[in-house]
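Q: What does the assembly look like in three dimensions?
Context provided by user:
Components: two
Sequences:
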Amino acid sequence: MKRATRILILAVAFIVLLLPLVPLVLWSLVSRWRYPEVIPDLDGGFWLGLSSDPRILSAFTNSMALTALVVLASLALSFFAAKNLGTRSFRGKRIIEIALLVPTFFPPIAIVFGMQRVFVQLHLYSTLPGLFIAQLVFYVPYMTLLLSAMFENYDPAYEQQAASLGVGPVKRLFTVTLPAVRAGVVVSCIFCFIGSWSVYLLTNVIAPPAFKTLPTLLFPMMSVGNNSYSMVAVVIILYIAPILLFLTLGSKALVDNRLDTKKGGLL
Amino acid sequence: MKTRIQLILSFLPLAVLLAVAYLWPVFSNVRASFHDDGGTFVGLQNYSDVLTSYYFTDSLLFSLKVSVLSTVISMVLAIILALALRETFVGKKLAVFICQYNLSIPRMAAAMIMLFLISQTGWLSSIAHWLGLTDSAAQFPFLAYDSRGIGLMIVFIWKFAPYICMSVLGILQGASLEFEHQAATLGIGKVKRFFHIILPNIIPATAVASILVFAASFGDYEVPAILGSAQSRPLSVMVYLKYLDPHLRNRPEAFVIMVLMTCVLMAVIITYWLLVTRRERGRR
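A: Here is the predicted structure of the complete assembly.
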C-alpha cells in the first residue's frame, strides 16, 4: 500500500473513532449547550456538582465492589477447569468448549427473564447474592475460555519436576504454577473486569431495585426531553474511565492476546 | 483414577452454575412458551399467535437487516483498515491502540456518546450549521431514533469494525505477507495478489469474527433501547416490551420470541464452533 493511501485511511479512521469523544467531554464541562453552538461556554459543568450527588459515588463503589468480587470468584472457580482444558485431552472436551461459548456469546436478553423466574423459585431474585451468582453464570465460563487459551502454551513439566522433588500441591500452585502464568491471568482478569463492569440488563432484572451500579444508574438518565446532558456525560466518563485505564495499563499484553479470536476478545 | 476425579472436580463448579442458572432458565423459557399466562398447556398456540402477529415479521426482518448490514459493512471497513495498519511505520503502536480502544467501551455508553454526536441537535449538526450546510436542526439528516436503523448500524459498525480488524490484522502480519512477497517477485499484479493470496488467507479469521459480531448485534438490547425508534423495533426490544407488558396475557409471546431467538443464536454459535475447530485442524 502506498504511504499516502495509508495515511489517508488511518486519518479517516482516527477521526471517526475519536470524534464521538469530543462532544462527550464538552458535555461534561458545560451546564448548558444549545444548538447550534459548536463550542459551548465551558463552566465546569456537572463535575462541580458531582460531590453533592451521593447516588453517583455509591453506584461507582457498588460497581467496583461487585465487579471485583465477580472477577476474583470467577478466577478461583475457573482456574483448575481452565488448566485441565488447556493442558489435557479427554473425552467430552469439545462439549465443554461449546458449553462455555454459549453463555459467553449469547445475548443476555434471550435468557435473563428465564433466570428471573428460576431465581424467584430459589429465593435469589432481588438479592445481592442472587446478583453475584447471576454474574458468575456469565463470567466463570468466560474466564475459563480466556484462561484455557493461555494454558495451551503452558508446560506442566515444571510442576511435575517440583512434585518429584517433594514440593506439596499448595506450595506448587503458589511457587510454580501461578508465577508462570501470571501475565495471562492478569490479562484474563482485565477482560473479565471489563465484561462484568459493563453489564446492564442482568443487573437491572436481578438486582434489588435500591442497588444501583453505574450502568443501571446511567440507563434511565438518557430519556428524551432531558435538556442538560452534563450529568449523563460525567457518569459516562466515570463508566468508561476505569476500562480505558486498565486497557492502557495492560495494553502491551492485550495487543498480543487480542489477536486470537478463539478467546472472543471483547465484544 | 485420582487424576480422573481431579478432572471431574475441577469442572464441578462450572457444571453446577450452568445447569442451575443457565440450562434451567432455558428450559423454563421453553416450557413457558407452550403455556398460557395461567399455566395451562396450549401447545403451539403461542407460536402461531406470534408468527401471525402484526409485529413479528417486521421485527425479525428489522433485526436481521440491521445485524447483517452492520456485519458486512464492518467486515469491509475492517479489511481496509487492517491493510493500512499491517506494515511497520512510525507510531504504529499508538495507531493500533486507537483502533481498538473503543472495543472495550460498553455498548450502552457507545450508543449515548453517539447520540451526542449524530442527533439532529448534536455536535455534527451544529458543525453543519456553522459551515453553512444547514439552516436549522431539522435539515440535518435524521440519524438517531430513525426507523431505518441507521443510528443503530452506526454504533454497531463503530464498535465492531475494529474488532474484526484486529482479527484480520493478526493474519495479515503473519503468513500472508511472505506469500505476497513471493508472488510480487514472480511479477503478479496487485489486484490479483489481493484476490488470490490476501483474501483466501483472511477469510477464515474474518468469518469467525464476523459471526460473533452478527450474534452480538442481532441480540443487543441496549443500543436499540437508547437509539432506536418506536416504529421499528428489533426482537430484543420486543421481548422486553412483551415481558413487561401490564397485560400479562402477552407474556407467553415474550417467551416464544426468546425461544426463537435462542434457536437462531444457537445455530450461529454452532457454526462458529465448527469454523474454529476446522481452522485448528487445518493448522496442525
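Follow-up: The radius of gyration of chain B is 23 Å.
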